[in-house]
Each structure stands twice: as C-alpha cells, then as structure tokens.
C-alpha cells in the first residue's frame, strides 16, 4: 500500500550510515535553534530500494543500491524523494565515504582552494573521514601536502595515500616543523580542528594564502568556537599577508554536488583514490553494528581514534513491506 505523498519517493532499507562531526552540532540544535526534540538525526546513508512510488519507478528499481544526504539517516528505513536518491554502483561502504566527506573536500578545494601545481597544502586531521580526501585530491593537483594527525599509525596511513609530510602532533611540535621546513608558509590550509590548530594555521599562511574552514571539532562539544583573542589580531595577520579565510558548508554548494559525486565515484571504482572505512574494529565496543552503536561511534570520533570515515553497519532485515 502506498503511503500519502509516496508517489515520487523511494523507500530505502539502510545498510550503512556515516558518522560526521556535525552530528553533534545538529543534535544540539546549533544548525536550527527552532528545531526541538524529537527530530531525525544522521546525515547520510546507503541502502537498498525496497519500495517505490509510481512516478519514482520510472528511474529506480526495487533492489537498487542508492545513497542520500539529508537528515534522518540514523534509522533502519527512510523514505527519500526520488530526486534526492543517488544511484551507486553497488552496496559498498566505500561509496558512503564520498557522500559528505569526499564531496566536501572535492568542492571546497576546487572552489575555494584554487589548487595549482607546486602549491603547498596543509590538511589538519588528515587521516580522518574528509582529511583523507583532501590529501589525495591535493596530490592529484600536483601539490605538496602536509598532514597532521595523532598517531604513528595514522602517519603511516597518510604516507600510503601520498602525503609528503605527515606530522604526529603528539610527538612533534607542529609550529616548529612548519617554521623550519616551510619558512615561506603554506598556500592552502584545509582546517577542521579549530582551537590551537586554527591559530597555528593562520600563523603558517604564506603570502596570499587561503584557509578553508570546514569545521572546528575541538569546540563542538563545548559550544566554543574560535578564541576571542583571535578577533583582535586576525585582521592584522591577514592584512600583512594578503591572506584570506573562507568558510565552507556543503549545503550551500549543492549545485556542484552531482558533478563532484559522479567524479568521485568514478575514481573510487577505478581505484584512483583510497576510500578508507573505519567500522570501529579497534574500539572498545568492537565493530559498530546497529543503531545502538551510533553513540559509541560518535565518541570514537571525538577521541580521535578513527582512520578514515567512521561507518556504522545496520543488520539486514527481511521485513521490507510498507
């Protein structure tokens, strides 16, 4: 039986859902203060079409693998407008890594980073869900890439995907490394940490350098963003370098989304990029399976344990009737 408004929609049974730093901001009501609990959470999922509205059946088939980006991913099933469903070649969690993390890196570096051969790019949290793509896409643009991370294991991963200089900030002084090894500064910074790392990134910008802010995970849980002291010094720091800071929010760039996603999927299929997935196998709770493990996965992310994109697998259910 069709439910009301279902004619142009797909009902999808989730197999994998992605974890993002912004999950905290959304659930805390910082994206829209008018939204009050209860409300749907989770931003991205990939699953199998189990039912179709009449008009949606012209473009999709039951059993087809699709992905989507919209609130409500943390669920076993969801109903998605057909125009928002993204066909993917197969039910691989690697494709999920592209939906938010991959496209954020792809579009922001292209539109705001203006990468060109020979430039120096600094990626903070480089071994994370989106950092891994910022590293690889910068290398594809023939840039020299520096990546910060928190363990030697992550450093090894970064080197394996082409990072020229991996810095373990737990064992090395990042400011000293940048000052000594890159005295002219860095041309582009892909920044998602905030706090002290943000300040360091500002200080490390080269003449006409560009800093792209995609988040500030260090402040999400405490409601703090950038320290107040930055507001007094920041204009002078930018002025003397003709540098710039740009914020990036994926929702404002959906006109570029389909193109970015198409290119990333092609690169993934051809194995031209690594789409690292972290199911939490090394977490205290073991592999993240089922919706009940979502909060463990978010904690795991905030502890900085993950290498690549954190993904929660949902057990397959045989009950797919409307």
Automatic annotation (TrEMBL):
Alphabetical list of Gene3D superfamilies matching this protein: Medium-chain alcohol dehydrogenases, catalytic domain, NAD(P)-binding Rossmann-like Domain
GO CC aspect terms: mitochondrion
EC code(s) of this entry: 1.3.1.48
Stored CDD domains: Mgc45594_like
Keyword Oxidoreductase: yes
Entry-linked InterPro entries: ADH-like_C, ADH-like_N, ER, GroES-like_sf, NAD(P)-bd_dom_sf, Quin_OxRdtase/zeta-crystal_CS, Zn-ADH-like_protein
Keywords: Oxidoreductase
Enzyme class: oxidoreductase
GO molecular function: 15-oxoprostaglandin 13-reductase [NAD(P)+] activity; zinc ion binding
The keyword Magnesium belongs to this UniProt entry's keyword annotation: no
Residue ranges occupied by any Enoyl reductase (ER) domain in the UniProt entry: 5-312
Similarity remark: Belongs to the zinc-containing alcohol dehydrogenase family. Quinone oxidoreductase subfamily.
Protein's UniProt name: 15-oxoprostaglandin 13-reductase
């Amino acid at each position: 039986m069709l439910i009301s408004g279902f004619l142009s929609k797909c009902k999808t049974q989730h197999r994998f859902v992605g974890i993002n730093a912004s999950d905290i901001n959304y659930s805390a009501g910082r994206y829209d203060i008018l939204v009050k609990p209860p409300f749907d959470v989770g931003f991205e999922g990939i699953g199998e079409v189990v039912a179709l509205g009449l008009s949606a059946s012209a473009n999709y088939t039951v059993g087809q693998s699709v992905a989507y980006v919209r609130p409500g991913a943390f669920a076993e099933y969801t109903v998605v407008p057909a125009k928002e469903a993204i066909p993917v070649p197969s039910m691989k969690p690697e494709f999920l890594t592209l939906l938010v993390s991959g496209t954020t890196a792809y579009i922001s570096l292209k539109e705001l980073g203006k990468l060109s051969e020979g430039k120096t790019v600094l990626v903070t949290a480089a071994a994370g869900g989106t950092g891994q793509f910022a590293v690889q896409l910068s290398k594809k643009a023939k840039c020299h890439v520096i990546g910060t991370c928190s363990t030697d294991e992550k450093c090894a991963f970064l080197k394996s995907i082409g990072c020229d200089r991996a810095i373990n900030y737990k064992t090395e002084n990042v400011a000293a490394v940048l000052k000594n090894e890159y005295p002219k500064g860095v041309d582009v910074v892909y920044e998602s940490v905030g706090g002290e790392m943000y300040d360091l990134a500002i200080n490390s910008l080269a003449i006409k350098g560009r800093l792209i802010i995609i988040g500030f995970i260090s402040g999400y849980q405490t409601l703090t963003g950038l320290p107040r002291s930055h507001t007094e010094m920041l204009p002078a720091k930018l002025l003397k370098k003709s540098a710039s800071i740009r914020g990036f929010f994926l929702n404002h760039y959906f006109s570029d989304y389909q193109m970015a996603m198409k290119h990333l999927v092609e690169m993934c299929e051809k194995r031209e990029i690594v789409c690292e997935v972290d199911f939490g196998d090394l977490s205290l709770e073991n592999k993240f399976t089922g919706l009940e493990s979502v909060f463990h996965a978010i904690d795991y992310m905030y502890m900085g344990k993950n290498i690549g994109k954190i993904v929660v697998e949902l057990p397959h259910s045989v009950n797919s009737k409307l």
